[in-house]
């Protein structure tokens, strides 16, 4: 990355976001998945212990997370309409709504009226990754399940926007295909959505692939330098768009990359179903930054940032 790119990215981030960094945590409520993504540990081909939390168990997870001070959560299910129907996700949102003002979802693609139902229940954002925009690679890596249908997935963000969701997060899984081409296609997708749905708040994520046991596919390594360039280039192209960085990245790298455009960090995370109350089961990915919310907040304050626990409350919640 050139010094000029870094300086401009820093300046734009400061100009549009000041020193604010939002904090959130994932809440996995199910790991059942009907898809066969070759790169994922939750794929249906893996013989892992499958679990789905009851409403009581979801409430227990929420209570534990809320005690840490977090107010912003991302509820995740695997992609199984059968195991995690909309009614189940809605119940989870209603339970979580008792504890958190910000609830986002990372679930299988729905129809507009279903997203609408979840919005009315209290969800205010949805995350959905196309994973890769290379159709050929997409086809090879998604041999079974509904996710095979590239176009169906591509259309989901538009349905989310039509449903009235406040926040929409898109992303690519870095390493699956040529990152330059994927980044270009992601930018085009976002430009299209921004133009058609200007009222939505957008953010982007760039998780780096972590290879799972038994996966013999060749992926493209993504260096720290490339990650930095991706974040800084995104900031230049989209000065007002949020950029999320998860605990897949190490504490040291997250601290270092912050100033180039990152606006949202996960903290004190578990990627296991029920992981805030027990230590059993397999996580979706390995956590490389194990700091608690308090520790991440301390780091931010020390660096001169303002940790933001929530920037949104629905009218009538108080
Ligand atoms: S990436 Fe998502 S859809 Fe694919 S196997 Fe993993 S959990 Fe399922």
TrEMBL record:
Cross-referenced InterPro entries: Aldolase_TIM, BATS_dom, rSAM, rSAM_sf, ThiH, ThiH/NoCL/HydG-like
Cofactor list: [4Fe-4S] cluster
SUPFAM superfamilies on file: Radical SAM enzymes
Pfam families hit by this protein: BATS, Radical_SAM
Any one GO MF annotation of this record: 4 iron, 4 sulfur cluster binding
GO terms for biological process, alphabetical: thiamine biosynthetic process
Domain Radical SAM core, first and last residues per copy: 19-248
UniProtKB keywords: 4Fe-4S, Iron, Iron-sulfur, Metal-binding, S-adenosyl-L-methionine
Lineage top rank: taxon: Bacteria
Protein name: Thiamine biosynthesis ThiH
Organism listed in the record: Candidatus Saganbacteria bacterium
């Amino acid at each position: 990355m050139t010094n000029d790119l870094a300086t401009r990215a820093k300046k734009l981030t400061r100009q549009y976001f000041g020193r604010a960094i939002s904090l959130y945590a994932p809440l996995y409520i199910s790991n059942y998945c009907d898809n066969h993504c070759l790169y994922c540990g939750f794929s249906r081909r893996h013989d892992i212990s499958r679990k789905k939390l009851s409403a009581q168990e979801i409430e227990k997870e929420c209570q534990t997370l809320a005690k840490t001070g977090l107010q912003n959560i991302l509820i995740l299910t695997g992609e199984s309409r059968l195991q995690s129907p909309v009614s189940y996700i809605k119940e989870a949102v209603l339970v979580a709504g008792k504890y958190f003002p910000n609830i986002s979802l990372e679930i299988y693609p729905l129809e507009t009226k279903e997203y609408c139902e979840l919005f009315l229940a209290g969800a205010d954002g949805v995350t959905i990754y196309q994973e890769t925009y290379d159709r050929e690679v997409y086809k090879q890596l998604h041999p079974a399940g509904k996710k095979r249908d590239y176009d169906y997935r591509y259309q989901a963000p538009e349905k989310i926007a039509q449903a009235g969701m406040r926040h929409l997060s898109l992303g690519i899984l870095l390493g699956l295909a040529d990152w330059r081409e994927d980044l270009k296609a992601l930018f085009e997708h976002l430009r299209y959505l921004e133009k058609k749905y200007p009222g939505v708040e957008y953010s982007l994520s760039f998780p780096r692939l972590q290879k799972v046991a038994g996966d013999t596919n060749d992926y493209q390594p993504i260096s720290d330098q490339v990650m930095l360039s991706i974040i800084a280039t995104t900031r230049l192209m989209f000065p007002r768009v949020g950029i999320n960085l998860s605990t897949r990245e190490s504490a040291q790298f997250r601290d270092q990359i912050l100033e180039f455009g990152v606006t949202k960090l996960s903290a004190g995370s578990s990627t296991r179903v029920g992981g805030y109350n027990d230590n059993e089961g397999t996580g979706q990915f390995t956590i490389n930054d194990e700091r608690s919310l308090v520790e991440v907040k301390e780091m931010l304050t020390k660096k001169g940032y303002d940790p933001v626990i929530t920037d949104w409350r629905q009218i009538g919640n108080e």
